[in-house]
């Protein structure tokens, strides 16, 4: 009797196991790798969303590099031109704006980082010590091209507010006031024409290359 009960219990257990639904293995979600964006990539993406042309900025940098090369070494010209591009991102300014100031200030001194004016302005973009301090830099920082470029952008932005949004007047105020500032503005216009001519030359050369015509 005991054996019969044991056999019956085993049969019931087996029947229950047969009726138990088998769980299917759930498919694992595919691992999606998101490409890592650098800060510069995000900056460029943000500007493109705002409708600001990166191609125009890059075209300007090529013209700036050519103008700088006439005054300093090719390597230094390339480095300073790159700063004109990167330090004007997310600002109201274009690379030409920063380059014009550099050329007007120290173009005659081979764009030297250690150039010092008779009044004590320092660096490629010639910041006075008190103006450098007002933007959070020391006068010694102005011998560092990157920091000097940053300070120059902040100074130009300050002058733009004073000039009620008139960029050319802001560049004149960057120098100061009076006859010296008027002469400075004429120099700014001259170097601007130089870079615009270089930009036009590069555009013509690119068009000739695309059409298969040999450039001179």
UniProtKB/TrEMBL annotation:
Pfam families assigned: SLT
Stretches assigned to the Transglycosylase SLT domain: 101-170
Gene3D superfamilies according to UniProt: 1.10.530.10
InterPro entries in alphabetical order: Lysozyme-like_dom_sf, Transglycosylase_SLT_dom_1
Highest taxon of source: Bacteria
PROSITE patterns attached to this UniProt entry: PROKAR_LIPOPROTEIN
Protein name (Swiss-Prot/TrEMBL): Lytic transglycosylase domain-containing protein
The organism of origin for this protein: Oryzomonas japonica
């Amino acid at each position: 009797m005991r054996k019969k009960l044991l056999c019956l219990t085993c049969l019931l257990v087996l029947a229950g196991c047969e009726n138990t639904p088998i769980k299917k293995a759930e498919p694992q979600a595919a691992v999606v790798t998101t490409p890592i964006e650098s800060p510069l990539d995000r900056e460029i993406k943000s500007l493109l969303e705002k409708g600001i042309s990166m191609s125009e900025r890059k075209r300007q940098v090529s013209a700036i590099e050519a103008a700088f090369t006439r005054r300093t070494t090719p390597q230094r010209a390339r480095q300073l031109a790159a700063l004109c591009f990167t330090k004007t991102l997310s600002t109201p300014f274009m690379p030409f704006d920063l380059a014009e100031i550099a050329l007007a200030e120290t173009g005659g001194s081979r764009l030297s980082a250690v150039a010092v004016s008779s009044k004590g302005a320092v660096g490629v973009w010639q910041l006075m010590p008190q103006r450098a301090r007002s933007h959070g830099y020391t006068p010694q920082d102005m011998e560092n091209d990157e920091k000097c470029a940053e300070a120059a952008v902040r100074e130009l932005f300050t002058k733009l507010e004073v000039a009620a949004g008139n960029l050319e007047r802001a560049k004149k105020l960057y120098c100061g006031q009076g006859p010296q500032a008027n002469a400075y503005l004429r120099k700014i216009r001259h170097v601007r024409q130089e870079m615009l001519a270089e930009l036009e030359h590069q555009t013509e050369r690119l068009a000739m290359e695309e059409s298969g015509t040999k450039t001179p």
